[in-house]
Design a protein that fits this description.
Length: 210
């Protein structure tokens, strides 16, 4: 195999993978936007949309891995070192976001309108949330330090810009997914009734002008 062919195959693979992921992202959003009735007899768990915001985030994380090499101008050797560090950063962020949201949801339940507030339990959850946020910040800092070790200064700056761009795109698609889920839960709109001309005419005759 010639050197030209050897360099072609990694690029061709990345292009194919990017195409597949783009289609997957589009399909995930389209599925989330399509109102589909839940199975008969299904409860709240049956109404869960597996291709909603969480699925969009997972797909975009995978897509950002493919786009990163081009955006940061990484050669193949750098990309091999960079890839596991990026996926570790993504997993760290997702894991801590899930834990944060879970504790906040528990706080909402404990302090709801009909809840008998147990101040000791609320303080415990607030402390757990604070500890989690401190730990998450340290873990993210460590993950970013690991990434920076694989990049030069210009690439480090490019990575911050790249993350912001991907985050904006992710928010756009997640909002679309949430709107689709809201439309699915509301169900199809009630049909507009057509007015009967004869009824309208009869009603208009009953209106008297003083």
């Amino acid at each position: 195999m010639t050197p030209q062919m050897s360099s072609f195959y990694p690029r061709a693979w990345r292009l194919m993978a990017a195409t597949v992921l783009i289609v997957a992202v589009a399909a995930g959003v389209a599925t989330a936007q399509t109102p589909t009735p839940p199975p008969r007899g299904a409860g709240s768990a049956g109404r869960a949309d597996q291709s909603g915001p969480a699925e969009v985030q997972r797909l975009l994380d995978a897509y950002s891995v493919i786009r990163a090499q081009e955006a940061l101008k990484l050669d193949d050797d750098q990309f091999v070192q960079f890839l596991p560090k990026l996926t570790a950063l993504q997993e760290t962020r997702r894991r801590n976001e899930r834990a944060h949201n879970q504790i906040v949801a528990e706080l909402g339940r404990l302090t709801g309108p009909n809840a008998q507030v147990d101040e000791a339990q609320v303080r415990e959850k607030l402390k757990a949330l604070q500890d989690l946020d401190v730990r998450a910040a340290a873990e993210l800092r460590k993950a970013y330090d690991a990434i920076d070790q694989a990049l030069d200064v210009k690439q480090q700056a490019r990575f911050r810009v790249f993350e912001l761009q991907m985050e904006r795109r992710k928010l756009e698609l997640m909002l679309q997914a949430r709107r689709g889920e809201a439309a699915r839960r509301m169900g199809p709109a009630a049909p507009i009734k057509k007015l009967d001309p004869s009824t309208t005419a009869t009603s208009s005759k009953q209106i008297r002008v003083p």
